[in-house]
Amino acid sequence: MMKKLTLLALVGLWAVNAVWAQSGALTADQLKEIRQSYKEDSYTKAMENALSNNDINKLALNRDNVGKVDQNFKYKVDVSGITDQKSSGRCWMFTSLNILRPVAKKHFNIDKFEFSENYLYFYDIFEKANLFLNNVVATADLPFTDRKVNWYFKSPVDDGGVWNSFVNLVNKYGLVPKDVMPETNSSDNTRKMVKFIVTKLREDGLELRQMVADKKSKTDIENRRVGMLKDVYRMLALNLGNPPEQFRWRYEDKDGNLSEYKTYTPQQFRDDVLGDVKLSDYVMIMNDPTRPYYKHYEIENYRNTEEGINWNYVNLPNDVIKQFAIKSIKNNEPMYASCDVGAFYVKGSGVLSTENYDYGAVYGVKFGMDKKQRILTGESGSSHGMALIAVDVNDQGKPTKWQFENSWGPDSDYHGYLTFTDNWFNQYMFRFVINKKYLDKKTLKAWDEKAEMLPPWDPMF
């Protein structure tokens, strides 16, 4: 009996060791070695107690860097006041409108002005719904496991966008003042509204795919698609209000003079305010070290209107982008820009610096990825858009720090502004929109060349 039990024990032990010994699996010896590498000396035990009971940012905050970056700048554009996107993902829309606000203030000779973000937001979601339904019909013959089909259904609509999305909306729907279509609870807090619209669109998308499979006529499919859009319009109007087709508006100028009421369509108001400003004069430039520089790229299907333009950009080195940005700021023209705002962000400090935190010192490990590696692995990417408004330079004219006009309200960070060091620029800045007149011939030549098409699921986007 003992021999039998011993044999069974040996077999069991052999089976366990066989599992441990599988290719790539941790062996018992390896686990032992790893466990023994964790030396619980007094410092490690103190750090374990501290980290397990506190936010790591409190422990990693680099006290040597506190107060080292001031809020003064040699070159700064005339700012228009801080806006607040609240709990929404409309930073790109707020930023785009913010860089046009000085134009409106000058046109009307007024101290304060804000365009209606809610007005454009309504049509952004509505047009994205239309584009989604069109994409569903166009890919209805593909299996649901196809990557493109899966991508469309993953996010039929959302708050996100970039400069081309703004241009598409303004060109088609115009602009209105904020008091003509003010914010609502649903525009300030978009998550639930978008969730229900996404749910409805996914359901509608499945129905359209089935209609194509059943070989329904194009007319039947089109009529049904329009019916689906009526539901989306209703959901948006109930949450955001019904957008005006025409409105009466007046204003009081800096001298206290009250204008007469004037009736506008949104398109007429756009033309009146923007005047000679042409949105087509502005181009997006980016710093993406995963790809060759001085090339024109286009993101497939990254737009919000069926007939609109896709996201296009020229990829450039950071030092070249900085030269253009300084020219724009010196000429009192803010720029649309976007970045990885959460990187080394100290809430309330108003400063973004790669020296703000030392996470490696807390953990006793090294974090060493460069910008290219962070992009490729999904570790870093553009997450927030703001207006680039200021730059400080040293005696040699080289930039040392920059400043954003944010859209998180005037109580955030430094009175609503965020300052960032030049090294932070190198590591975490990505997109910029700038007037063509500040670009050199080499960049303009790249912009005029045929774009290389990139998929929307690329890690950079």
TrEMBL record:
One of its GO terms (cellular component) is cytoplasm. The keyword Transcription does not apply. It holds the Pfam family Peptidase_C1_2. The active site is at C91, H384, N406. Keywords: Aminopeptidase, Hydrolase, Protease, Signal, Thiol protease. It comes from the Bacteria. SUPFAM superfamilies: Cysteine proteinases. GO terms for molecular function: cysteine-type aminopeptidase activity. Residues 1-21 form the signal peptide. GO terms for biological process: homocysteine catabolic process; proteolysis; response to toxic substance. InterPro entries: Papain-like_cys_pep_sf, Pept_cys_AS, Peptidase_C1B. Belongs to the peptidase C1 family. This is Aminopeptidase. It comes from Prolixibacter bellariivorans.
